[in-house]
Amino acid sequence: MADTSIFFVETRSSEQRPLLCRWVEHLVEQGENVQVAADSTMAAQQLDAMLWTFSQGGFIPHRIHDASSSSPLPGEVMITTGETVVPACEVLVADSSVRLEFMKRFRLAIHFVLMDDTERRQESRLIWQEARDQGMTPRHVPYAARLPALG
Length: 151
Prior knowledge:
Helix content: 25-40%
Largest sheet: 7 strands, parallel
CATH topology: Rossmann fold
Shape: globular
Mean pLDDT: 89
Distance between the termini: 17 Å
Number of strands: 7
CATH architecture: 3-Layer(aba) Sandwich
CATH superfamily: DNA polymerase III subunit chi
Low-confidence stretches: none
Structural class: alpha/beta
Order of helices and strands: EHEHEEEHEHE
Number of helices: 4
CATH class: Alpha Beta
Strand order of the largest sheet: 3-4-2-5-6-1-7
């Protein structure tokens, strides 16, 4: 997708998943079709459990996507393993590292910059630079910032 917006969101490793849940909730409330990319089946199952219990005041409809899954219902979050494409999803929230080329398949991508993980932080820098080199304008979300307006 040519017009991908990528938000580079600073966080700490221990806070990444609760923050991911806040982003997913925010995006679903905005009417977005969201895909969450995990790096393993175990991570997908952990995210599944977190999304069931995360919101005290509501419910985030979601499920783990597999090869036999049907298309998501409107507002249903799809949790995938790796760089799996779910055609109905226009927004990606990456729990794990994904390549820029994969992020570019979406209208909006959320990439977490783990400030306390030197290797992942350096990987984020390289993705940021690659995005800039390709003429994109990545957006920085500082640690502890409020969720930005997406419009």
